[in-house]
Design brief:
With 215 residues, the chain is an alpha+beta fold. Helices cover 56% and strands 13% of the residues. It is built from 10 helices and 6 strands; from the N terminus they run E-E-E-E-H-E-H-E-H-H-H-H-H-H-H-H. The strands form 3 sheets. Strands 1-2 form a two-stranded antiparallel ribbon. Strands 3-4 form a two-stranded antiparallel ribbon. A two-stranded parallel sheet has the order 5-6. Helix 4 runs antiparallel to helix 5. The longest helix has 19 residues. The protein starts with a strand and ends with a helix. It comes from Arachidicoccus ginsenosidivorans. Pfam families: DDE_Tnp_IS66. This is Transposase.
Amino acid sequence: MVQNGGCTLIKMICLPLLVRIHPEGQVAQQEFFPFGFPNSVLVHDCLSMQLATPAWAHQICNSHLLRELKAMMEAHPEVNWPKQLTRLIKDALALYKEGSSPTEVTKIEDRLTKLLNQKMGNAAGKIPAMWKGLNKHRDKIFLFLKYPDKNIPPENNAAERAIRNVKVKIKVSGQFKSGDGAKDYATIRSVVDTKRKHKQNVHDELVRIASTPLN
């Protein structure tokens, strides 16, 4: 989020019945969720700030991985590793939709182990970085298959959809003139998206909130 020419990281927290947007990423977590999410699984793009957030478990967004792998395949079509990992992720997602058995999950994990055991440290482009990162966080790739009873989503598309309006705002207006303005917008956007999740009339709810006296 741009403020007077400076760039601020947007923090988007999207829960089943709550959306919270804040123009200062780490501040949002400390202010609204100081203890993290001890009873929840965080689904994210594997950024350092996201990985540092306390949670019951972490799931790497598989859609994000597929986008990264697609770019690698286009840039380096001669390397088979991104193609193999793409097939594996798509197979895992298909298994997630169809319903998986412990035996099938084990087969997926075995294929993942074989891929990550390949030596890709000297491969072209961004492939080594992904290979190293996934080796470090391999337990977060297919967590959604290991705990089918917890309904863990394999991607964070809900958060991507929720932040789309913020991206459009930034693209159209270019910037906020102050940090307070950015925070006010993020708060209003959070309320609007949360009310929609509750299937409430956004206009009526905003009028009700604006009409409520401050104590």
